[in-house]
């Protein structure tokens, strides 16, 4: 068993799915479609089951993976998509708690041979486009388990895996609770009326990963790129004035860009999904970069340096006749990072990426023990299925 | 230049110092001894300067390193310890801010040939014992720059590098401000009266790294060990019931231990420096482990799982006639981790290690921009040197 592959980032699992689709092996994809009770992972968690008993990704914390590998072998052989329910609860109270978190609850898993019908998902994901994979779990008369259609929240369209308009599907129904899940990048099972029949589908909203753009090429940049990448951000490193060897120096970056501080706004696609950390260690470069970021209205601008330095930057903006409103400035985080203490370059990077995670997930950083309510945000959808959680 | 070595964890720099001492190369150690103004690293930050222009560790964010490598070559050749001041401030306001944070301020750096006089520092560090390296910067009549003595806060003793009692040093003076720095693991320059003379020494308090003990061997453990190790914790993984191949499965751990939940308290040195994360995913194993940790009074017990699970654990303790006071229970963090959102194994690990960092550094986790006062905690010592900061 390839132990080291269990705790790979989510992006890495999708990357592996793409690689497998490009290869000619038959792999099996397992996806959690429903969870009751407390479990380590939520609906939408994925695992690739390889021939030979190894896997990529994780669905539980090791409670079920061995069993899944066995079912995976069967699915690979028969080519039939299966829906398997693991009931880790039982009436013996002692046992339930003996199994502990992660090995608790009822978990429903869809296992399918990985085929071309999944390609639109990975293409959207890496193309930066949100998509929901809608897969039939129980099809009534008209559909079979594993039948699939794609919902694109940006245009509200429904497409078949081959890219054609999906016809014959209960389109109206999909504009309801399923679309809501899809638009929020959430996952869950939904029952849809289909004439007199009823269709149970799994809606797997795949939010394209957010982008973290790091401005700067100093020695403090690399641990930021490493941690951001492992935390599922698409990472871009931006260097100025003919910075060289960036690809080599920042192997964790998805791309590197060499440009000028004055043309940042034009050369980069800055939008509501861009999280930026400005750490060029040059005041004027930082100033021009921050100006472009504020103009673009990105949700997070982390600026390395003490608060006074940013105050000076505001003065400099004002000298140039630029004023930014309170709301625009609320996206600025300076000094950058969470207050975790620790002053090594890696510790500073850890606190920066922790802050970006919290902001991108709209969390107030604090101890989970101080938070009220469940850890996983609940999504209530109108359906007779259990409210899926993520 | 070995780019990848700049952002290594602090522990790794000390490890490299040990390796160099064991080898027969002549390396030069650079240490920041004083900082005025804002700088990226604080007094005590270290960098090893290799022959051939590469380095390990970082002192600034790339502003001075090239210059330091050049001075390092000179020190290697002459064998003379040097104290170099870099004044990155000047009267031209524009320029000061143009240089930006990290390339700001006045930085004083001690460069010395790495010799056996430094060995007690690495031995204490890896032996889990706090120590302060006291090095003469300006020796007056009786001492030379680079002369050195070790102060051990646990016993209040002063030793020469060869382990003998240090004689002839102004011992009384060292029990004052220097000892205060040393006891707190802080670093700074201190002036000591030496008869009619005056001695300027650099006190480099090396706090032995805290230990993170992870109980559990599931697939969610590895990213915790990786991140904790890179954040300068000594990492121990504890497995139960003949867990095998732990060293192989957790390469980032400093050690792995296989024991039984009932003997955790006896088999591990649990003390006020032990930070523990309990994630065996087995209720009874977790319960026995938590009991031992609470009995030992460790400062942090992170328990994976929902709050209700821990409430059940408290019920189970009560059934066994065990009650823990409020203060003891305040060390329990469950659900474990900071509230950063994100549910991948790596994201969960990131939030756990962020919490351990905050607790071990006695910080309230929140955005640095919401924190009042300076990022670096100031240490005021009675001396005519500037108050060193870290």
Automatic annotation (TrEMBL), chains A, B:
Q: Which residues form the XdhC Rossmann domain?
A: 212-356
Q: Name one Pfam family in it.
A: XdhC_C
Check the record and name the InterPro entries matching this protein: MoCofactor_Util/Proc (IPR052698), XdhC_CoxI (IPR003777), XdhC_Rossmann_dom (IPR027051)
**Could you tell me where the Basic and acidic residues compositional bias lies?**
371-381
Record domain XdhC- CoxI: where: 25-87
Residues of the region (Disordered) are 364-390
For this protein, the record's PANTHER family field holds: ALDEHYDE OXIDOREDUCTASE MOLYBDENUM COFACTOR ASSEMBLY PROTEIN, XANTHINE DEHYDROGENASE SUBUNIT A-RELATED
State the protein's name.
XdhC family protein
Q: Which organism is it from?
A: Halobellus litoreus
């Amino acid at each position: 068993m390839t132990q080291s592959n269990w705790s790979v980032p989510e992006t890495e699992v999708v990357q592996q799915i793409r690689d497998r689709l490009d290869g000619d092996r038959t792999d099996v994809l397992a996806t959690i479609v429903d969870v009751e009770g407390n479990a380590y992972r939520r609906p939408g968690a994925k695992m690739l089951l390889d021939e030979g008993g190894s896997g990529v990704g994780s669905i539980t914390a090791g409670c079920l993976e061995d069993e899944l590998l066995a079912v995976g072998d069967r699915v690979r052989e028969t080519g039939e998509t299966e829906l398997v329910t693991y009931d880790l609860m039982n009436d013996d109270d002692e046992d339930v708690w003996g199994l502990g978190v992660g090995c608790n609850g009822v978990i429903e898993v869809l296992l399918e041979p990985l085929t071309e019908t999944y390609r639109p998902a990975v293409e959207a994901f890496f193309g930066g486009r949100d998509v929901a994979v809608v897969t039939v779990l129980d099809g009534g008369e008209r559909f079979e388990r594993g039948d699939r259609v794609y919902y694109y929240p940006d245009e509200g369209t429904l497409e078949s895996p081959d890219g054609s308009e999906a016809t014959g599907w209960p389109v109206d129904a999909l504009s309801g609770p399923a679309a809501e899940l899809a638009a929020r990048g959430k996952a869950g099972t939904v029952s849809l009326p289909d004439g007199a029949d009823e269709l149970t589908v799994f809606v797997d909203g795949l939010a394209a990963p957010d982008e973290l753009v790091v401005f700067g090429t100093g020695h403090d940049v690399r641990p930021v790129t490493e941690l951001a990448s492992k935390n599922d951000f698409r990472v871009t490193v931006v260097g100025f004035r003919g910075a060289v060897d960036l690809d080599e120096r920042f192997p964790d970056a998805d791309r590197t860009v060499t440009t000028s501080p004055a043309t940042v706004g034009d050369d980069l696609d800055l939008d509501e999904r861009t999280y930026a950390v400005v750490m060029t260690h040059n005041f004027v470069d930082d100033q021009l970069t921050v100006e472009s970021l504020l103009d673009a209205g990105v949700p997070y601008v982390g600026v390395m340096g003490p608060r006074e330095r940013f105050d000076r930057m505001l003065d400099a903006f004002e000298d140039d006749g630029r004023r930014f409103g309170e709301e625009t400035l609320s996206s600025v985080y300076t000094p950058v990072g969470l207050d975790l203490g620790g002053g090594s370059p890696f510790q500073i990077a850890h606190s920066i990426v922790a802050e970006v995670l919290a902001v991108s997930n709209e969390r107030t950083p604090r101890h989970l023990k101080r938070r009220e309510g469940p850890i996983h945000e609940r999504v209530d959808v109108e359906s007779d299925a259990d409210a899926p959680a993520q």
